[in-house]
Amino acid sequence: QVQLKESGPGLVQPSQTLSLTCTVSGFSLTSYNVHWVRQPPGKGLEWMGVIWSGGNTDYNSALKPRLSISRDTSKSQVFLTMNSLQTEDTGIYYCNRIRNWGQGVMVTVSS
Amino acid sequence: DVVLTQTPPTLSATIGQSVSISCRSSQSLLHSNGNTYLNWLLQRPGQPPQLLIYLVSRLESGVPNRFSGSGSGTDFTLKISGVEAEDLGVYYCVQSTHAPYTFGAGTKLELK
Q1: Which site in A48, B82, B102, B109 is 20 to 30 Å from B53, CA atoms measured?
Q2: What is the per-residue pLDDT across B27-45, written as a single tens digit (0 to 9) for each?
């Protein structure tokens, strides 16, 4: 059974760095792409980036200067790191395989 | 970046009514490999999105066949033939032909 689960701090201070982990099961990261998508409270979905099965990455052009996605295939984990966080980065962060989504993790940027 | 324009932003329907949602792209979503990577998602309140339709018209496993997708190039439509209560939520189109992937702004389906 395919599963994805996000984890990370619920609260981040402004200007600090966000680090999230997506732990997957039921499939191999070397065979499937994993995306990160976020959703500000009460708003729509924003594609952040992807780590392709081959290990390359692509990013939302607006976020690219502060966003990094990586993985540890031995642990079946995908990592999202985003620096210089601001209040507008508050929202739910989802990792997904398009066909399968995690439940998301709520991140609040506040002092 | 590709811009997806969804209409209407809100849709009010009665149970059993058939409804359609439009998704228009700022550029063709036909990939050089011949596929058109336009998907439809449903996000129920408090839930993550779920895939309904992929490659324009292919029904995801387990999705009721009252959902159907159509279109080509830059114009796409999601149709629900007989709305049921469990269909309420926000519908998004998303393209994965061109990086960066982009979502439409969403269409909220509510009960009239």
Answers
A1: A48
A2: 999 999 999 999 999 999 9
Tens of pLDDT, residue by residue over A3-44, are: 999 999 999 999 999 999 999 999 999 999 999 999 999 999
SS3 B2: coil
Residue B99: pLDDT band (50, 70, 90) is confident
CA dist., res. A102 & res. A4, Å (int): 5
Residue-wise pLDDT for A67-85, tens only, equals 999 999 999 999 999 999 9
> What's the residue count for chain A?
111
What tokens appear for B21 in the block? 């949602």
Whether residue B83 contacts residue B19, with contact meaning beta carbons closer than 8 Å, is answered with yes
Q: Which of A45, A46, A59 sits opposite B49 (nearest CB)?
A: A45
| 3-state SS, residue A78 | strand
Q: Mutate which of B42, B63, B103, B107 to disrupt the A interface (most A C-beta within 10 Å)?
A: B103
Query: Is there a contact between A99 and B54 if contact means CB atoms under 8 Å apart?
Result: yes
Nearest Cα residue to B104 out of B76, B81, B85: B76
* B30 contact A CB<8A: no
Omega before residue A9 within 30° of 0, cis? no
